[in-house]
């Protein structure tokens, strides 16, 4: 299991008229967490793109438990629980200190620049093998 933490300071532009974070902004925060986790694993998303790969979201879920508000400092906890093969599932928690605000997940698949499904690049596969060992893949 790989876990990454990303800090977000809620900006005014991310809130509605009540000062509460607009629900769609959590998905952008998931992207922050996903990009950071991949970087910490030695897989820079920008490099994947320059090599001809993309990782579109093919499934997403989100459960809102408590609101984040303007000027909160929140932590996006991103977890890669299983070694990926063709698809990557990431789980997220958004926390304000110890308080759980939001949970969610995204599932991604590898495609090329023409939009056709492809196998992940060798660097990605090698890094996941090194990080997860010989565990069964999803």
CATH superfamily: Hotdog Thioesterase
Helix content: 10-25%
The end-to-end span amounts to: 13 Å
Task: Report the uncertain regions.
Answer: none
> Order of strands across the biggest sheet?
1-4-5-6-3
Overall geometry comes to: elongated
Oligomer: single chain
CATH class descriptor: Alpha Beta
Beta content: 35-45%
Largest sheet: 5 strands, antiparallel
Which fold name corresponds to the CATH topology? Thiol Ester Dehydrase, Chain A
The average pLDDT is 93
Structural class: alpha+beta
Order of helices and strands: EHHEEEEEEH
User: What's the Cα radius of gyration?
Assistant: 16 Å
What is the helix tally? 3
Tell me the number of strands. Answer: 7
Number of domains: 1
The CATH architecture assignment turns out to be: Roll
Task: Walk me through the structure.
Helices cover 24% and strands 36% of the residues. With 138 residues, it is of the alpha+beta class. It has a single domain, classed as Hotdog Thioesterase (Thiol Ester Dehydrase, Chain A, Roll), CATH 3.10.129. The protein has a five-stranded antiparallel β-sheet, covered by helices on one side. A two-stranded antiparallel ribbon has the order 2-7. Strand 4 (73-80) and strand 5 (87-96) form a beta hairpin. It starts with a strand and ends in a 6-residue tail after the last helix. The mean pLDDT is 93.
């Amino acid at each position: 299991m790989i876990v990454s933490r990303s800090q977000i300071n809620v900006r005014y532009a991310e809130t509605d008229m009540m000062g509460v974070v607009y629900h769609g902004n959590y998905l952008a925060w998931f992207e922050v967490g996903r990009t950071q986790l991949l970087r910490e694993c030695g897989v820079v998303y920008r490099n994947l793109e320059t090599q001809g790969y993309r990782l579109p979201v093919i499934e997403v879920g989100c459960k809102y438990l408590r609101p984040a508000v303007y000027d909160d400092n929140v932590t996006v906890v991103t977890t890669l629980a299983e070694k990926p093969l063709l698809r990557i599932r990431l789980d997220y928690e958004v926390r304000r200190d110890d308080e759980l605000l939001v949970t969610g997940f995204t599932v991604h698949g590898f495609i090329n620049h023409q939009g056709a499904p492809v196998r992940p690049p060798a660097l990605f596969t090698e890094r996941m093998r090194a990080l997860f060992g010989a565990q069964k893949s999803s």
